[in-house]
Amino acid sequence: MKTPRNTRRIVRTAAIAGAAGALVLSTLTACSNDKDKAGGPTTDLPTSAAAGEAIKIGLIGSGGGVVSIPQLTKGGEAAAKYLNDNAGGINGHRVDLIVCNQHEDPASATKCANEMVEKKVAVVAVPMTSQGAVMLPIVARAGIPYVSQAPVSAVEMGAPGGYMLSGGTVAVLNGQAQTAAKEGVKKFTILIGDSGDAAASVGQMAQAFFKPAGIDVKVVTIPSNVADPTPQISAGLADKPDAVTVLGDSRQCVSSLKALKTAAPQVKKYLIASCLDKTVTDNVGTDAVEGAKSFTTVITTGDDPTVVRYRSVLAKYSPDVDPNGLAYLGYQVISSIGEVGKSLPAGPITAKQYTDALRAAQNVPVPAAPGLTFTCNGKAFPKAPNLCSKSILVSEVGADGKLSNSTVVN
């Protein structure tokens, strides 16, 4: 699919839609880490301790306030421990992880960004946040690269100094539009909450991707104060769409999937990661997601070596965290920074050297995402030059909720 000419304007609207999603994702909770729940086996990790001079890497998580997603930090910390104790560090360098957890508000976000500058880190890792527009400029002014796994704000997608390892909302909508076109979908409905003007923003973005594919797309806004949205969803599906997606947190996924069982049990479902979380399937049953298509930047089940390593690292260093939750965002961003750093020389590492390494990295595999790579040269999606990829994994959801037959959509 060709990139629509008006996407630069549309991408700017992603901030509100993404921010709403980031904030409400805090409802996801950790589960115990037995192998059945983890989605597959784990393995023994190698023993290769880092001995070289340390690299200061900043990790800004989300925790301690009204919005708290500790899995983000724990996933990143687990990845750093793996690099230091099992993977020989970053080209021999030991990782000195500087952690600051902000509360998804401007004041605490500013504090964390300034702390990274004061401590002279070589690179800042931000798994996911709604405060990128606050933090990225502070970090970038100091010449420090700001690397995120899940871009939320328009600033993260376009301001100098940012490197987004995935395409965020852009990748989801692009992947869903391409998949819908291949499956012969003519009518597509997006179910989304009524936070701010997220629905209008996503509607504009969706038109940019679905309309060129010849697909009519409609956004149905679900009131957040309604316990049972079945009447609203039934009304929104009156034109009998061929496929439906739910863009929201686990709570919205639960209410929407329950309503879909009544309102449109046979409709095709295109689901993002929050709708496949165990907290959702425990509430609605795996039959509510069976046969759906998933759109993710991670695979947590199965036997791919990078996925097994991800589960194994969490099992060893963060055993209280569910690998099927949001920990992958922290794990992926720190692990990816480690992969990029394989070209770094011995001796002290500066922010300039890490910036150069990021810009030079080509087709770096995304950890625990078989088939996905990133290249941060500004060409993956020129309308949003900080995106290092707009690819996404499209998988089939089985009866057990596990993903299979994954393909990459670019």
Automatic annotation (TrEMBL):
InterPro entries: BCAA_transport, Leu-bd, Peripla_BP_I
CDD domains to which the protein is assigned, alphabetical: PBP1_ABC_ligand_binding-like
Domain Leucine-binding protein: 55-380
SUPFAM superfamilies membership: Periplasmic binding protein-like I
Record's keyword terms, sorted: Signal
Signal peptide boundaries: 1-32
Listed PROSITE patterns: PROKAR_LIPOPROTEIN
Record's keyword annotation contains Metal-binding: no
Family membership noted in the UniProt record: Belongs to the leucine-binding protein family.
Name of the protein in question: Leucine-binding protein domain-containing protein
